Inverse folding.
């Protein structure tokens, strides 16, 4: 377990947030519905947000109003900061979050970096099969070790590249480009292998940094690129599917265990159904948003298999570099899970 309670300030922030939640919910009585706060970092209207609201809708309907879910987009309760958001989840200041394994690897447990290895997953079908299978169940166990209950996997999407400098179709095109990457060291290593200058910053700061020219590029799934309106400050987009990014719908473990078995089963069913809905949205947007972004004025390059292979080969050393951190057995296990899913016919092909 990676402890992130490393400053008095962060501890105080979590305690204050917890007190705020207690004041918000009140004590005892049981006169009204049980209120659940579900936080996520992305914008209102994003696929994360739509999945969260679908969960709220299903749970309120199926519980006949016994539960009320309040969705907080943009991590409003955490000062728009994902680290603080995760701290609040672990402390019980908020009940639920949607989190990417990228954030979980950065602040909670490095084993979650296994999901972010470059060009590991060929398509959504294989990725979903791995997340919903034995390897995904194993990963949810890592959450349990850290005081979090994982309910179901959703998807952020395959991560694509946007920039304001040039069309990127070869590794050399990234040379010297200042690229904001999600916080994991793994992504920094991938872009460094291409000769780029990777940097990290809180997601909530990315649009302004692109607008002001502090950075010239960023990487995110198409749904986030569109919902965050990056097309307003970026000219070029490269579809290369360099990393797959699932989501995990989570619940504070201590609070989860206080629920009745019947309510835990109900929340689990609603969570799985909501994440299936969210997955369908992302896959549909992956098909539709390329043309939408072109209509917004972006130059969108869709790389074929040989072009992707050039990038794959350039960053092959990342697997060797990060296997000791993730765990060699875990890297082998997720690679085996991908191959098993492929052979079972879950995917449509290598790219």
């Amino acid at each position: 377990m990676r402890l992130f309670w490393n400053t008095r300030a962060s501890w105080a922030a979590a305690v204050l947030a917890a007190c705020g939640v207690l004041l918000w919910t009140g004590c005892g009585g049981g006169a009204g519905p049980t209120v659940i706060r579900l936080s996520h970092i992305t914008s209102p209207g994003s696929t994360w947000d739509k999945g969260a609201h679908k969960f709220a809708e299903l749970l309120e309907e199926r519980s006949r109003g016994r539960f009320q879910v309040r969705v907080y987009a943009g991590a409003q309760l955490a000062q728009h900061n994902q680290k603080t958001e995760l701290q609040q989840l672990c402390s019980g200041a908020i009940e639920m979050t949607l989190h990417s394994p990228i954030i979980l690897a950065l602040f909670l447990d490095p084993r979650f970096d296994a999901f972010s290895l470059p060009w590991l997953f060929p398509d959504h079908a294989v990725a979903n099969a791995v997340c919903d299978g034995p390897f995904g169940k194993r990963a949810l166990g890592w959450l349990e070790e850290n005081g979090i209950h994982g309910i179901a996997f959703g998807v952020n999407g395959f991560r694509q590249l946007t920039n304001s400098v040039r069309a990127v179709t070869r590794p050399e095109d990234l040379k010297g480009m200042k690229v904001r990457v999600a916080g994991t060291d793994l992504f920094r290593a991938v872009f460094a292998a291409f000769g780029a200058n990777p940097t990290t910053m809180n997601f909530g700061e990315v649009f302004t940094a692109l607008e002001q020219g502090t950075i010239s590029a960023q990487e995110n799934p198409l749904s986030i690129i569109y919902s965050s309106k990056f097309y307003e400050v970026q000219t070029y987009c490269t579809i290369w599917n360099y990393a797959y990014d699932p989501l995990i719908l989570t619940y504070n473990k201590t609070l989860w265990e206080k629920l009745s078995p019947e309510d835990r089963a109900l929340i689990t069913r609603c969570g799985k159904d909501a994440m299936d809905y969210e997955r369908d949205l992302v896959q549909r947007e992956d098909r539709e948003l390329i043309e939408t972004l072109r209509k917004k004025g972006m130059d969108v390059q869709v790389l074929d298999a040989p072009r992707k292979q050039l990038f794959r080969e350039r960053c092959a050393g990342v697997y060797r570099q990060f296997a000791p951190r993730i765990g060699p057995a875990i890297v082998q296990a997720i690679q085996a899970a991908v191959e098993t899913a492929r052979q079972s016919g879950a995917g449509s092909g290598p790219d």
Observations:
- Strands lie at 34-39, 67-72, 96-99, 148-163, 178-180, 197-199, 217-221, 236-252, 299-302.
- The longest helix spans residues 261-295.
- The chain has 14 helices and nine strands.
- The chain has one domain: 8-343.
